[in-house]
Amino acid sequence: MELILRMKTGFFEKTTYRLEAGKRGLFLIPIKDESAGRIALEQEEILSVTLTERRYPELEIQARDTAYTGVFETETAFEEAANYLKERLNTKIICEYRGESKMKKQMIAVLLTLCAALTLLPTTALRRRRENRRRRTHPFLGKVCSL
Asked: Model pTM greater than 0.85?
């Protein structure tokens, strides 16, 4: 699995890196810009890794001397990135989930179902009204007759 990150390297500057996790630590290898140095973080240097769930998940690496922040360049699945890091690193990994996104998807599905049901209800109710208008009780005979 290849994880591509856009790491913040300056005030308005971001550099594209490939993230590799191994038994010894994390390696950030520049993809396009060869002048940017390769970043190697040993396991002992890393204090924590934080993943934040968004459209493009965010990554923050807290090292002893600095913090590295970046955004995944592709729409990498949040769970895949978390599992990739969890399997390869022996450090604290913090995952910040957005519970509202799953709830929103469920609510949208429920609302769409309700809207579909509501669009059917008026037509069914109108049909019943029309049928009831046609079948009226004859005032003198007391029988149901269709008009």
From this structure: no
